[in-house]
Amino acid sequence: MMKRPSAGMQIDGYTLTECLHSGGFATIWEVTHPLYRTSMVMKVPTILDGYDAPTIVGFEVEQMIMPRLSGPHVPRLIGIGDFSVMPYIVTERIEGTSLLSLFRTAPLPLSEVIEVAARMTEAVHELHKQHVIHLDLKPDNFMQRKTGEMVAIDFGLSRHDLLPDLLSEEFTIPMGTFPYIAPEQYLRQRDDLRSDLFALGAMIYELATGKMPFGQPESLRGVRKRLWRDPVPPRALAPAIPEWLQEIILRALEVDPAKRYQSAAQMLFDLQHPAQVRLTERGQKMQRDSWLTVFRRWRIMRKVRRFDAPPSMSAQISKASVLMVAVDLAPDMEALGQQLLISVQRMLQILPDARVACVNVIKTARIGIDQTMTDSGDHLHVSRLVALRAWAATLDLPDDRLTFTVLEGPDPGQSIIDYATKTHVDHIMMGARSHSSKRRYLGSVSSQVVAEAACSVTVIRLAHPKDGLAVVEYAAAAV
Amino acid sequence: MRIAILTDIHGNQEAFSAVLADMAERVVDRTVMLGDIVGYGPDPAWCVEKTMELVAAGALCIKGNHDSAIADPKESLNVTARRAIDWTRPLLGAAQKQFLAELPLTLSLDDVLFVHASANDPGDWIYVTNASRAMPSFRVSTARVIFCGHVHVPALISCNMGGHVQQQKVLTGRPIPLIRSRRWLAVVGSVGQPRDGAAQGGYAIFDNESNELTFLRVPYDVTTTVQKVRQAGLPESLAMRLNWGA
Question: Is the pTM of this model over 0.80?
Answer without folding.
Answer: yes
